[in-house]
Each structure stands twice: as structure tokens, then as C-alpha cells.
Amino acid sequence: MITLLGTAIGFVSSLLPELLKLFRDSRDRKHELAMLQLQLEQQRQGQSERLEEIRAHASAAQMQALYQTYRSGIGWVDALSGTVRPVLAYGFFVLYFTIKWMQFVSLDMLSPLPWQMAMLWGEEDQALFAGVIAFYFGQRAVGKARA
User: Fold this and answer.
1) What kind and span of H or E run contains 86?
2) pLDDT tens, 72-94?
């Protein structure tokens, strides 16, 4: 009986290194597969980032080509064309300031009523002021982000 038990233990123990080797190989293959999947994912992400970069460059080139159409090649015409928006903005600001100044001057300063003072700077004025400031500074921020 001891001989039979010794033989069985010897046989099983001779298989143990092979079983450990198979287990280790299986683990190594799983690890290599996981590494390959990570590399594939990284390549996909790199390609999507590259595609986004290409789109950004195309958009910038399109905007640059669009602005090239506004140039005539004549210096004074280009300078005059570039001043249209600022001159209009300053003109409307001066007009707005004049109207507000006239409202202020028309108040009875000795005994102004609260609603008269509130009328000088109402919700519409706040919305208009905030919209103009947000437009100009937002346009500047977007322009810097594109550059």
C-alpha cells in the first residue's frame, strides 16, 4: 500500500511543475492580452486627438481664408473697413451716454424721487451693458483660444 501511495505521490508531484508552468503561461497570456488592449485603446485615443487637432487647424485656416476676402490691397480702404465696427460701437455708446446724461440732468436734484433715480439705471440698462461687455470680452477670449 505504501508503494502504491508513494507512486501516486511521485506521479502527482512530477506533474506539479508542469501545472505551475501552464498556470504561469496562462497568466502571462492574460497580461499580454491586457497590455495589447491598452495599447489599442491608447492608439484610438491618439487618433481621435489627432483628428480633433486636424479639425481645429482646418477651422483656423477657414477663418483665415474668410478674413482674407475682406482685404482689398488698398491701405486706406482696408483701414477704413477695419474701423466700421469700433466707430459704430463708440457712436452708440456716446448716444447712450448722452441720453442717460439728459435723464440725469432733467431730474429735480433738490428732491429726487426714488423711482426717478431707479429709472436712470434699470434692468434694461443692466442687461444691455452686460450683453455688450460679454460680447466684446467673450469675442476676445474666443479669439485668443483659437490662436
Assistant:
1) helix 84-106
2) 778 887 788 778 878 888 888 88
